[in-house]
Design goal:
single chain; about 375 residues; alpha/beta; OB fold (Dihydrolipoamide Acetyltransferase, E2P); Rossmann fold; Ribonucleotide Reductase Protein R1, domain 1; five-stranded mixed beta barrel; two-stranded antiparallel sheet; 11 helices; globular; metal-binding
Length: about 375
């Protein structure tokens, strides 16, 4: 069963170091306000954190999130569990905590491919798309761009949108309509059993509708044996408004197994996509600019005012979008600020830890 939920040789290689007596392995399938649900050999059960894990981690980002593999101990005749350890993560999806803080929020872990979902109608936003691409590049996740609601635009408008995406990223693009069904089979064919996917995008772009249709579209396929009790895609949706805009539906992150065996994480819509990537992560998200940067006169060129900058030269020649270039610089500055903020926070945490130890030693604890 664990293999069908993504426990492949990469995670199996960590099994010996993560094993504990009286425990087994499971995957986190849902997290909602600190409440966990995990999937193990006995099926899906609620779980809570062991005290050591809850109170002795470096920060919230080290706590379990959807997609994590964990070491758990079952109790109450296998109807509940305690999470003791979190496996190393192969890939991560994370963002800066909403607002002005410098914290990190985990979205999901161990995702193979993320579908960046934008609507052809109202939600299409190249700047937001670039932020998602940086997030995925930073976390080692493969991107695929999905344009929904193609039935609401003309063929010429769709062609223009595809050209804009192509100018931003070489990633695969799938345009579809949940109303007419056009393009849905293309997306279904991109899903493989045992692989983990994630739907990312703003509220109302049709992520939940899409997930329900993918599940329904594979109804003729047999689910892996023994999984009739597993988390399934059957989420509530709301009709679009009179203008064609969608409305917020999903309220928590949840891992679902489709009938064909593919695993999909649906996520609530994100108003902010603050980056916590390092400069290298930003460069990876802007592959076209990173390629041009190799032609700059100076290896440490910041692509702002330096002489011999191949990136600015491409902008001047009209070969690189000025907006794309400005967004790149903006995200580089955000990454630098995030890196400095995290370093400063680690220094403060270290200083606070030393002070606590000093007080304890002084009082003879």
């Amino acid at each position: 069963m664990l293999q069908s939920w993504g426990f492949d040789p990469w995670f199996a290689a960590h099994a010996a170091e993560m094993a504990m007596e009286g425990c087994g392995f499971a995957r986190v399938c849902a997290v909602d306000r600190g409440a966990y649900r995990i999937l193990g050999e006995g099926g899906e059960v609620p779980a809570e954190l062991a005290g050591r894990l809850a109170y002795h981690t470096d920060g919230p980002a080290d706590l379990p999130c959807v997609g994590d593999w964990v070491t758990a101990q079952w109790h109450s005749d296998g109807t509940a569990a305690i999470i003791h350890r979190v496996f190393p993560r192969r890939t991560v999806l994370r963002r800066k905590t909403a607002g002005d803080g410098c914290g990190v929020q985990m979205i999901a872990a161990n995702i193979d491919t993320a579908f960046i979902v934008q609507s052809c109608h109202y939600d299409f936003n190249p700047g937001r798309l670039e932020r998602y691409l940086v997030m995925l590049a930073d976390g080692g996740v493969e991107p695929v761009v999905v344009l929904t609601k193609k039935d609401l635009v003309t063929p010429d408008d769709l062609a223009n949108l595809l050209a804009v995406v192509a100018a931003v990223t070489p990633a695969r693009v799938i345009a579809l309509s949940s109303v007419t069904g056009a393009g849905l089979n293309v997306l279904r064919q991109a899903l493989a059993p045992g692989r983990t996917y994630c739907l990312l995008g703003s509220s109302g772009v049709g992520k939940t509708t899409l997930l329900n249709q993918l599940a329904g579209g594979q109804a003729g396929a047999e689910a892996p044996s023994g999984h009739a009790h597993a988390t399934r895609a059957d989420r509530a949706t709301r009709a679009v408004s009179a203008t064609g805009e969608g409305t917020h539906t999903t309220t928590r992150r949840q891992l679902t197994m489709l009938d064909g065996g593919a695993l999909v994480v649906d996520t609530p819509g994100m108003r902010e996509v603050g980056t916590v990537a390092a400069a290298d992560g930003v460069d990876a998200g802007f592959a076209d600019i990173a390629l041009l940067a190799g032609e700059c006169r100076y290896a440490d060129c910041r692509h702002e005012h330096e002489a011999g900058c191949a990136v600015r030269a491409a902008v001047d020649r009209g070969e690189l979008s000025a907006t794309h270039y400005r967004n790149y610089l903006k995200l580089r500055k955000e990454a630098a600020f995030s890196e400095m903020s995290q370093l400063d926070r680690r220094r403060k945490d270290k200083a606070f830890g030393k002070m606590v130890k000093s007080v304890k030693k002084h009082k003879g604890y």
